Amino acid sequence: MGKHIIIIGSGLGGLTCGYILAKNGYRVTVLEKNAQVGGCLQTFTRRGVKFETGMHYIGSMEEGQLLHHFFRYLNLLSDVKLRPLDREAYDLISIGGERFPFANGTEHFTEQLAKYFPKEEDSLRRYWQAIHEATESSPLHSLKTTNEPIVLNPSHIKLSYDKFLENVTNNELLRLVLAGNLPLYAGERGKTPMYISAFINDFYNRSAYRIVGGSETIALSLVKSIRAMGGEVLPSAEVVKINCDDKQAVNVSLKNGETIEGDYFISNMHPVRMVEMVESSLLRKSYRDRIAAMNNTISNFTVYIAFKKDTVPYFNSNFYHYNTPADVWRGKDYEQSAYPSSFLYMHLCSSENQQFADAAVLISYMNFEDVAQWTGTKVGRRGADYEAFKKEKAEKLLDLLERQIPHTRQNIEHYYTSSPLTYLDYTGTEHGSMYGVMRDCNESIHSLVSQRTRIPNLFQTGQNVNSHGILGVIIGSILTAGELLGVNHIVKQIKNAD
Ligand SMILES: Cc1cc2nc3c(=O)[nH]c(=O)nc-3n(C[C@H](O)[C@H](O)[C@H](O)COP(=O)(O)OP(=O)(O)OC[C@H]3O[C@@H](n4cnc5c(N)ncnc54)[C@H](O)[C@@H]3O)c2cc1C
Asked: Which sign does the torsion angle of CA 418, 421, 422, 424 carry?
């Protein structure tokens, strides 16, 4: 066995790094604080109904498309079953009473939206051309090997998505429609770089799927493979300290008092958590201050709905609703008195050809400040006032859903809720942030987290490095594992796996 790699956290980033490094002969140990592995890939079951908490749909999974290459390499194809979303409307954008479908394929997408915006066909073509230019400029998105440092085109990094849309079209409603799936990346006006949106829209436009049985199937498959290659994945193993000598990291201390030594260490935690665990002066104050000052993407409040058996036909689109056009970019600036003014609603997929939905999620943005008074309380024991707060928010959300999709309420058997505190406690993400550190086109360097740290054998992975979502995190894991193996080596392995 090769050198010993300790990976802190079994989210998608930690498990993907673990898989790549175990496959290349390293001895891998993944340490996970929770009893369940997967981080945002976790699911939970109540009264026999399974709910996804943090990954609901994935894209680019047709043979020859990017995620399909990655899944083949990661040996996920046989364990992870998918169900395609409606090709005519994988996303359905609802703004102030009108509904606009996003269809798969750029031509089809253009034709569909041109029915609502007949004079905008050229704008839509320009939109997709610019998006493809952005994705093709990234070597990893086209699985090219390169000996140059991987740097994206500055024009895609420094331009905000809303400014990009202004360059594409003067039609304000079309611009809002094209921003309609902003909750997928918690986009902010004047801040979110065009490339973040471009990669995500390209990814889902090529093909879009729900994961049958939930995204935990991805985590469980990766764990099985890591173990089959001789690696260890240890749940209920919370790391409390990363200990260093005067040159590098030497071991980690666990909450149960154990110490585990390693040659290399990879943190899959939010960078704020990682910095808290390293006392060594090898991490400079300027780095610690920079990490502490970084802005994070907003958190969310979710209602997990279980339906009465065979009452609600399975809805094969993701439904993004905004009460008014002004709500599309409102994001974290929502008004308490007007809450909720938007939501994302998705049915969960429990079988490849189900006719009725068992469960759904209803997600809305929520700032951490709304629940900050309960910080430090424990899951399930936060008090009656917290329960009342959640009930009030949930009922308002369900009322708004009912106005958009009538007869839903009468078919609800039971529902559960989560808040920003739930995410903070389960995944350790700062302020319960959905997608971690926010990329900001005005501070393109300062909003980046490198996979390297000043400690030569301590690296980072996960959504804070590179970007979030299944694609962003897998590419980030290739960059992190590439620090030891070489990125080109991994890219060649991925191509050879086909
Ligand atoms: C509500 C929501 C919906 C989403 N929907 C989608 C979607 O539809 N499609 C998509 O592609 N992406 C989606 N995402 C994003 C995607 O789920 C994440 O970007 C990705 O799963 C993050 O993986 P990660 O490895 O970076 O981190 P995480 O999943 O946060 O994993 C970090 C892990 O580290 C562990 N950890 C933390 N501290 C310690 C410690 N001290 N010791 C040991 N372990 C520790 C945590 O318990 C956790 O398991 C969604 C996210 C959210 C929140």
From this structure: positive
The residue nearest atom 32 of ligand 1, judged by CA position, is 11
Using one digit for the tens of pLDDT, what is the confidence trace for 37-85? Answer: 999 999 999 999 999 999 999 999 999 999 999 999 999 999 999 999 9
Q: Is the CB of 9 under 6 A from ligand 1?
A: yes
- Do 197 and 159 form a contact (C-beta atoms < 8 A)? no
Q: Give the distance (Å) from ligand 1 centre to CA of residue 36.
A: 12
Query: Ligand 1 in contact with 215 (CB < 6 A)?
Result: no
| DSSP run (H or E) holding 44 | strand 43-46
Dihedral of CA atoms 385, 389, 390, 395 in degrees, nearest 10, equals 130
Say if residue 425 is in the same domain as residue 475: no
CA 467 to chain centroid, in Å, comes to 8
Claim to verify: residue 310 and residue 180 sit in the same structural domain: yes
Residue located via tokens 């986009």: 187
The predicted-structure confidence for 224-269, as pLDDT tens digits, reads as follows 999 999 999 999 999 999 999 999 999 999 999 999 999 999 999 9
Q: Return the SS3 of 61.
A: coil
Domain assignment present for 108 = yes
Contact 33, 63 (CB under 8 A): no
Look at the chain and report how many structural domains it folds into.
2
Residue 60 lies in a domain: no
Distance CA 478, CA 308 (A): 43
> Are both 301 and 287 inside the same structural domain?
no
Q: Is residue 333 part of a domain?
A: yes
Which residues form the domain of 91? 83-212+296-430
Determine contact, residues 185/179, Cβ cutoff 8 Å.
Answer: no
Residue 256 exposed, middle or buried by CB count within 10 Å (0-12, 13-18, 19+):
exposed
